[in-house]
Amino acid sequence: MADKEPGTAVAAPTQTAVAMPVNWRDRMKQVAVKSAEAEAPSGGYISFKSGRLSLGDMVQPGDKIEIIVLDYLFHNKYYTTAYDSKVTVPPACYAFSRMEERMEPDADAESPQGSEEGFCAGCPQNEWGTSPKGGRGKACSNTRRLFLLPAGVVTDPTKVARSEFIQCDLPVTSVKNFSRFVNDLAPAGVPPFGVVVEMSVKPHDETLFQVYFKPMEQIRDEAILEALANRNWRAEQAALPKYPTREELAERNAGKQSSKY
What we know:
By secondary structure, this protein is an alpha+beta fold. It has one domain. It has 5 helices and 9 strands, in the order H-E-E-E-E-E-E-H-E-H-E-E-H-H. Strands 1, 2, 3, 4, 5, 6, 7, 8 and 9 form a 9-stranded mixed β-sheet that branches. Strand 2 and strand 3 form a beta hairpin. The protein is globular, with a radius of gyration of 23 Å. The two termini are 41 Å apart.
């Protein structure tokens, strides 16, 4: 007699009559906390498109998220084409730096601009009143690239070390809010990564919306602070970011389409 093929169905967990050790309200809280930890954001990119705070494709409840600002860079970017939400293109020229006065176009940019000396300072595209939209704005956007960790990492130094960065580029009109957040912490000797901060998007009369930073709690656990300081140091040693070229973007998009199904 031939052996039967093993079934493919997965057996349901065996039911037992063991009593729940806590009341149902406490159990609800426990499951909520465990679920939040299991599904905590890890990596990705925050968008502020249309004045909504989105992580990946998910708009965050209340347009806010609690994070830790582990590191940040000064970031300039200049586009020669008008914005099109359906087409992703790299900036024609861009720069990253830890010191604003030392910014210079990335040599691998498609069309490096810069001053005669090769710096962003003095570049024709970095002058007030050059924005193609008119007004007193600049053709080159002076912003900040933030490297964030989800607030949940404060429970475990291992999470600090292993969690992927969440990244975002601040809207130019929100840079002052970020600078204010950093400068308010500095007199007390607290770095940006020393607090859990609520980052939120709110409507604004003049700029449609702005991104705000509200410190929620200072991190005091020394093991967590040590892990954050080590992660910050490692981030500082890393090479500056680079945008993919048009060709690389085309290859990525082609790969996504071919692997869709």
